Amino acid sequence: MKKLVTIIFLIILPVFSFASEKPVWIEATGEAYLGEIDTQKEVKDRARMDAQKNALEKAVGVFIKSHTLVSNSQLAEDLIYASVRGQVEKTEILHEGWDTKERSLYRIKLKSLIKPVYPEEGKGLSVKAYLSKTDLKEGEEVRIFYEASSDCYVYIFSVAADGSVTLLLPNSIRRENLTMAGKACEFPTSDSAIHLKAMFLPCYKGKVAEERIKLIATKEKEEILSLGFHEGMFKVYDSRSTGMISDLVKRLNRIDPDKWAEATSVYTLTR
């Protein structure tokens, strides 16, 4: 007899904090050392590029934070913005010169105007996701269907209203999460020991709730979340793990935007 495992999809009630898409001014410092075969111009150019790289990294953090949700359901929306990159529009030199103590070190401080740039639709990796039902009664089972444009590794999350996150796939039973390009996949499969049921929170008094599932696909296998604890077959990140969201965004932000994608599936639950 198959073991029945019930996952309660907790209620997510997002509240958005809208922000401007305008470029931002960022100050950053860069440095480079003078080698035996380097010219001073080459060193100055390297320091300038280092300063611009640091400015771009700072700007990306600003862009992501500007879209942060003010609810505990951050993971359900914030990852959309983790693929943002920056483009330098203007640069002003605030200070530059050789270090007074270490004469081979050149340092420059820039003020750069950086514009947010998002990946073009249709390029790189993409993933689609939908559920077996979009309108569910409490206690009904639900299955997740997904398909990717390229071979990739798929991670499936359930996000709770209290800020906790459950990693549904991979799990202790199904550790392999490789998905082949164009293949229609489902979770859980019809012959799986895992069953997902849509349930209201015990303390929820309303009759209708909107719930979400988040998928992240990466071209390479990634340890995108290293913390958490195991509860049965699934890895859980409780609401006290306040750094989990920002850590995940930072990890994804280091991956080329064309090499990862995300998708969100939404359904309505009624009593």
Give your account of this protein's structure.
- Mean pLDDT is 76; it is low at 1-20 and 69-74.
- The longest helix is centred in the first third of the chain and has 27 residues, at 40-66.
- Strands 5, 7, 8, 9, 11, 12, 13 and 14 form an eight-stranded mixed β-sheet that branches. Strands 1-3-2 form a three-stranded antiparallel β-sheet. A three-stranded antiparallel β-sheet has the order 4-6-10, with no helix packed on it.
- It folds into two domains: 24-117, Dodecin subunit-like; 127-270, Immunoglobulin-like (Sandwich).
- It is built from three helices and 14 strands.
- Strand 2 (85-98) and strand 3 form a beta hairpin.
- It has helices at 40-66, 75-78, 244-253; strands at 24-33, 85-98, 105-117, 127-131, 135-137, 144-148, 152-159, 165-169, 178-179, 185-187, 208-218, 229-231, 234-237, 260-270.
- It has 271 residues and is of the alpha+beta class.
- Helix content is 15%, strand content 36%.
